[in-house]
UniProtKB/TrEMBL annotation:
Belongs to the acetyltransferase family. The keyword Acyltransferase applies. Pfam families: Acetyltransf_1. InterPro entries: Acyl_CoA_acyltransferase, Diverse_Substrate_AcTransf, GNAT_dom. PROSITE patterns: GNAT. The keyword RNA-binding does not apply. Residues 1-141 form the N-acetyltransferase domain. Keywords: Acyltransferase, Transferase. GO terms for molecular function: N-acetyltransferase activity. This is N-acetyltransferase domain-containing protein.
């Protein structure tokens, strides 16, 4: 929920922690992998949630869904460590590719660009589309 609050998208959260636990940890085929940065007492400072995606041009790649560091711990390199850990995993995939989104107003975009990421909206004119629950319901009603 902290990430949704940071992104001003709290109204879009439709699942709770139990669904995340089931989908990522309580299954033989997890939907995602999550790396965490924690203090020795187990307090989580930040996390990176990613999954394997597939390109018909390049094969398997990594999609970084979420990278979040609590405000109190930002500016200490934790986000970069998490990002680099996922990037290393992506580097070991067949395609050596990692994709991710960043809201247009998020200052992290400069951080990603400084690490060599390319903004595909600008460079390749890609548009991202989504059919949400209401759109799919309407499509099949």
């Amino acid at each position: 929920m902290a990430l949704a609050e940071f992104e001003h998208l709290e109204d879009q959260v439709k699942i709770d922690a139990s669904v995340l636990e089931k989908d990522g940890f309580d299954t033989e085929s997890p939907a995602f992998t999550c790396l965490v940065a924690e203090i020795s007492d187990g307090h989580i400072m930040g996390y990176a949630l990613y999954y394997t995606s597939y390109s018909t041009w390049l094969g398997k790649s990594i999609f970084l869904e979420d990278l979040y560091v609590q405000a109190a711990y930002r500016g200490n390199g934790i986000g970069k460590q998490l990002f680099m850990a996922v990037a290393k995993i992506a580097h070991e995939t067949q395609s050596k590719r990692m994709d991710f989104h960043c809201l247009s107003w998020n200052p992290a975009a400069r951080f990603y660009e400084a690490l060599g990421a390319v903004n595909l909206t600008k460079a390749e004119k890609w548009n991202m589309f989504r059919l949400d629950s209401a759109s799919l319901d309407k499509l099949f009603s």
